[in-house]
Write the structure tokens for this entry.
Amino acid sequence: MSLVQEKLNLLKQNTHNSVNSLLEGTALAAAKKVDAKIENGQEIGLLEGIPFGIKDVYMLQGTYTTASSDLLKKYKAAYTATAIQKLLDAGAIPLVKENCDSFGHGSSSENTIFGAVKNAINPDLVAGGSSGGSAVNVAKDCTIFSIGGDTGGSIRQPAGYNKIYGFKPTYGRISRYGLMAYASSTDCVGPIAKSIEDVRIVLNVMSGKDPRDQTSYVSEAVSTDLKATQIKTVGYYKNFIENNAISTEIQTDFLATLEKIKAKGIAVKALDFFDADILVSTYYTLAMAETASNLSRLDGTNYGARIEGANLKDTYSITRSENFSEETKRRVVGGNQVLSQGFSDEIYLKAQNLRNQISARFTEDFKDVDIVLSPVTPASPPEIGESLQDPLAMYLSDAYTVGFSLGGLPALTIPKGTSTGIQITADKKKDAEVLQFANFLNEIL
Ligand code: GLN
């Protein structure tokens, strides 16, 4: 109870705009039950009584679930997401629905009706996004862990900007049921935490096949034996490092990290890859198409703040024009263009084809290397307000994360190696290897 109360107090005092709504009543009641269990001498589980945060795109029955949007500002979830239910079943206690970019659209957590989230280390800078509130709450010790969502980097990038751990598991390892859909083919549920061990525990609880998400699969738990790393060869993408977009500081630090790995007897191999702008354009083409389709249900009929017009069509159009952000509208318009008759062969199918080529390249690369390392971002976090002026520049800041999303690969940010962290990636379903290598890097960096 005292831990929950302490975290609630911190969340109430916080000035970083990381909180959309607090779940005080239910959290204190749940904490009381855990206290009673302890008093009765009953055994309690690893996560029992542990306070956590939830990005405000997850259904938790009875709570405001806004996606940081005007459209769903008053929407209360009718059911609970599978991943969150598993945490509840393990006794973890949700404290807060966390601020984020609206519908996951963004890389800075400025695209929100609740005010831009401020970076945990320097409040003049952005928190990163879209899971910015979740990353800041963990970094500021307001939650023990938080559950973010990662479609193209939204867990890894804010984890890097706030110097903590953020893991996007293999696509399908955790059920997406109850996560508000952005781009269904890359949407992933994942933990943000202050240690690899916490990432591991939360990952294991949330993983597993769910009949409500046909892309989910049965997986083996990642064991506690995270020391014995079998990694012999590490790869990195040459063109990620040798280009003009990367800051000199991040480039230098990344290369120095590779040297430290080599010094431990691990082979480091430079790999060729698609240019970052191809990865970014392929990702955004598909993500916009998918989000245009997924958000079409939000028309004020079944969900959302309806604004009446002269007729039904008018009602749809006013409801959506008034209640979606500029960024969300940009994506819906772009996505509908991508999918429209006469254009879809030229644009959508071309992007799908590129995606297949990207995946095939990963399969080839992972025959030669066990792990791929990359920076998390090309530059350090911008000041609040700076990047909103230029959406294209914002999209390009996702250069190092979106490719691994298209491949469905597990990828972890650790807060070491460069000022915005290092990203560790392995082949599909090799989530355990990623965490093992992270432990190794922690020892040598
Ligand atoms: N910044 C990326 C985008 O806006 C990724 C967002 C995410 O992973 N939800 O699409």
